[in-house]
Predict the structure.
Amino acid sequence: MTEIGEPLIQFSGVKKRFGTKIIYDNLDLTIVKGETLTILGGSGVGKSVMLKMLIGLLTPDAGSIVFDGIELTKLGAHAYGDIRRRIGYLFQSAALFDSLNVGDNVAYGLREHQAVKRMTDDEIHHRVGASLELVGLPGVQEMMPSDLSGGMRKRVGLARCIAVQPEVILYDEPSTGLDPINTARINNLVKGIADALHITSVVVTHDMGTAFDVSDRLAMVHRGRILLQGTPDVFKASNDPNIRNFILGIAPPGEDVATLLAQ
Ligand SMILES: Nc1ncnc2c1ncn2[C@@H]1O[C@H](COP(=O)(O)OP(=O)(O)OP(=O)(O)O)[C@@H](O)[C@H]1O
Ligand SMILES: [Mg+2]
């Protein structure tokens, strides 16, 4: 486990709505340097929105988001470029550029940031090779995304993420759609990369096995705020029915098939 330090990311009083739909009415959450924090919550509660607000793809309506002492909600587009280099984002869809081979996909972020941090083609070549090795896919640079399995695509997406050496990696449902073996492989990667690179990891998942396996702490989003945060043991011991049902995968009363059919 990595050494846990001071607060790195702080959401305070964050509000976000789309039209009349309130996603967050008061989001308070602290993410500590070096920890692996898992965000839990039902479909559509706003987990991806939280990550997108952190990397500036969405802007909160109110409240503050501080990263390493920098107030993100007040940053201009240019300054955000630097933040995006420091915070890697593994998209829910592991979006790769289908027209680029794996090597160019992984090099993409490096080339984009080349203006900030000069790297020679040789250095990029080495960094791409090392990143693919870290995710267990050495030597696949020439393959095209269409030739990859779902699990491999996720790992290439992860290699692209770590290639720019971020301080934080946001994983949006890294194991969704994968079989149990590839899920375990991704979980091991999340842990292995956190340890090897001493980074802070934020993982969104519906999979409780993943959540308990990879996390130092968990935070559950429910009705626009954080319902509970704490260690896996805190979650396992919780008596809150929303937490218990989520962990056990039980639908709330009135949502069972018989009741729905009777309506
Ligand atoms: N850009 C947007 N414009 C309008 N509505 C949006 C936008 N992005 C997200 N939403 C809505 O906000 C809500 C939360 O979306 P979000 O993607 O964060 O859910 P989630 O918790 O990640 O769900 P899932 O587990 O299914 O990925 C959803 O109702 C979604 O339709
Ligand atoms: Mg999502």
The pocket of magnesium ion (ligand 2) is lined by residues 47-48, 92, 172 (CB under 6 Å).
